[in-house]
Specification:
Strand order of the largest sheet: 7-6-1-4-5-10
Number of helices: 7
Structural class: alpha/beta
Radius of gyration: 17 Å
CATH class: Alpha Beta
CATH topology: Nucleotidyltransferase, domain 5
Strand content: 15-25%
Number of domains: 1
Largest sheet: 6 strands, mixed
Number of strands: 12
CATH architecture: 2-Layer Sandwich
């Protein structure tokens, strides 16, 4: 599929991205996670995009966006705009991981649009991962992996005024019967930023690190498998984005 001309959409969306957001990115490796909008019942869930930087094994969320837009070109344009902002500063993302569980055709559009500029990898929540005779879902393993970063206090979310929604979003995640359940609030938010952040961290892990996570198995990576919700420890000022 040929690359689409989204310049008109990007002009409209320019104001949604903080003008200095790329200046916060330094010399670390960069991963991008994208949770694609879906519909639950009568409510439409938002899309979310997370740009995560890894410095000395600490993960900094440099950009975290959540939005609702039915027009697929708007979603595609916002992703491309963020990637272009980084490339303009000679910052090349390691990869973008997109939740393609129910949106494989859109994931392919993103892959075509970013071809030659950013590698795109599909995440399928129900995909089975087998290790030593045990089977786990990607949702289990990646969820445990992401939660572990908070419990180790090495995951930095945006802080300060106006970011309360980020923490409310993450609190929609509950552990249940060895996996994770994303609850929905009254307006359709569905832990979208949690999923985008999780995929952003996964995008940064090397092949050997992913193998280690699979070897540990769901529920054995660390923390309490019976946790009722995610407890985000207060990060010191140096970890706030």
């Amino acid at each position: 599929m040929a690359r689409l001309d989204l310049s008109n959409y990007k002009r409209l969306l320019r104001t949604l991205l903080p003008p200095d957001w790329v200046a916060k990115v330094s010399a670390g490796k960069i991963g991008i996670g994208h949770d694609v909008a879906t519909t639950e019942g009568e409510l439409s869930n938002p899309s979310a995009l997370a740009v995560v930087e890894r410095i000395n094994n600490i993960f900094y969320t440099r950009l975290l966006l959540r939005w609702k837009a039915e027009e697929y070109k708007m979603r595609l344009a916002l992703i491309e705009l963020a990637v272009e902002d980084m490339l303009a500063q000679r910052l090349r993302p390691r990869r973008l991981v997109i939740d393609a569980t129910n949106e494989r055709s859109f994931a392919q559009m993103v892959r075509d649009q970013l071809s030659g500029r950013c590698n795109v990898e599909d995440y399928i929540a129900s995909a089975g991962i087998e290790h030593r005779g045990k089977k786990y879902s990607a949702k289990q393993l990646l969820g445990d992996m992401y939660v572990q970063q908070f419990e180790d206090n090495v995951m930095a979310l945006p802080g300060g005024q106006g970011t309360e929604w980020v923490y409310a979003d993450h609190q929609l995640v509950k552990a249940s019967k060895g996996t994770y359940v994303y609850e929905e609030d009254s307006v359709g938010n569905h832990a979208d930023a949690f999923v985008a952040g999780m995929l952003g961290v996964w995008a940064l892990l090397t092949g050997s690190e992913r193998v280690e996570i699979a070897a540990a198995g769901a529920g054995d990576i660390g923390g309490n498998p019976d946790r009722k919700g995610i407890i985000i420890p207060p990060a010191p000022p140096s970890l706030l984005c």
